[in-house]
Design brief:
Layout lengths: L12 H51 L29 E6 L4 E2 L5 E11 L3 E10 L12 E10 L2
Antiparallel strand pairs: 1-2, 1-3, 3-4, 4-5
Length: 157
Amino acid sequence: MKRRLRLASAFALVELTLALGVAAFCLISVFGLIPIGVQTNRNATSQTIATNIAADVVADLRGTPRCTGASTVFSIILGSGPGCPSTISPRAATLYIDSNGGVTTLGATSRYRVSVAWYGSSALRYADLKVTWPAAADPAITTPSGSVEMFAAFDRN
């Protein structure tokens, strides 16, 4: 009578240790990428909000009638063109926007700074809009965390 030996099929301790080591290396790599992903998401959200703010300001400036001295929503001084009763020259404006998109003063609730600079003649004006964040960081003095810049033309004839 022959005796049959049965071989046990199982993982050896060395195989198990190597598998755990590979899994731990992969998990540590993935966990190391989480802060980078969160920061990238935060930057993308801030940039999207800043782009929407710039688009809102341009829409407000374009929607303001020609002989009105200031824009209707953000109260930016536009100036008046030929044919208007008075000639007001446009002024550079700085606005502060809170997290809800409302205009506020520079303080704890302000998140974005909107700078509007005017160029061009009295009939055709160009506006350079720059939205930076955080609002307390003056771009003339320091580098802000992020910025969005938009150049728009307004035919005020």
